[in-house]
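Exercise 7.
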Amino acid sequence: MKTFFGPSEVRVQCWIPEITASGSNVTYEPKGRFFGEVNAWVNLSFTKLADGGYWAATISFPTSKLDAERWFERAMPMHVSIFTPHLQLLWEGFVNQATVMLSSLTKTRGPLTSIGNRAYARATLSEIIGNEIITTQDWTTVSADHTDSKLKYGVWEAVINAGTVYSATEARDLRDTWLNENAFPQMTENLTVDAANAPAITLECLGYIHFFDSYVYNANTSGTDNVSVAITNSGGTGKLQQVISADPNGLFSIANSDMIDNGILEQQWEDQDMTAMTLIRSMVAKGDGSGNRCLFRVVKDRKIVYKVAPSTARYAMRLASAERQIYTLARRREEFYEVGAGEWIIFSDFLVGDVARGTLQEDPRAMFIEQLTYNSPYGLQVDGSRWGTTEQLIAQFMGRV
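Solution. The predicted structure, written as tokens, is:
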């Protein structure tokens, strides 16, 4: 981990999404209606991951009582964009949780990712014969939707374990009860009578990659398929593309992607109620056919990038410099909020005169940016990592078909 400091200024803009019915699913347009702009000098941070892209952000700011109530009521699932002063996008995502402070009262609504507005139940149907309980079959209800929630927050699916039931009605009742109790974000509150805080709002945000946790992927197709087939080759039809295309919110498009070919084979059959995120993580962990690490990210305009991790450096920094500034190897100065994760940085005045190593993985003067967090207005924290081929090979062996 390394922490840098430098001057900066960023801007935050927020939109209310437009979500409309599209058959049993929805069409989700994040930038439906402009809501407002936030003074990001108050308190802002955002995190980017090498394997994940735009990951999380937190924005806190004081405001009037009326505006605090307005933000609190409309915050979720508000779209959030963080820009440079020149409106270059730095980070985007959605509000997952909102907290309002009004004098002695603190209220929190969320997280959004804990709701469910489409659910089905899996159960073991049994019957009592004499003094014995006889298991007859494993059974799954059809899915049910909470329409009002779905049109406000998008589709968030859940699978309910109903355990042992003695009629299909019991399983359906459990499904419907859970759906009614979990279709909207929960609220927690605290009253501290000896405190008197000025009105303020905190928005805790997540990148759109977290929407891959919003739906379950099952498939009853036999046979195998490649992990990934690039869009330039057969239109992008690998298993990774199939999982992405199953998104019930329509937030992601294979046409809006940059994905490599990966010929590692995957079973098409899926019946374990795993989320899309779990399956994507599993496939990405296998790397490519040569054992190279692969990275999966969601970035600007929800574009999906799936590529081999880089083997050359993008950034350089002199540790002895009073500015502690980061540059690209083309000598362009990067503001701290512009630095990207998933890149190598060279510390040019560390171990000066040391013999060059074969790869950046072996070079102690290099660091791979696994995670970075920018804190407005002056801070940047960077966490580095190293890896070999063992991790990818083990993942491939465990998932061998």
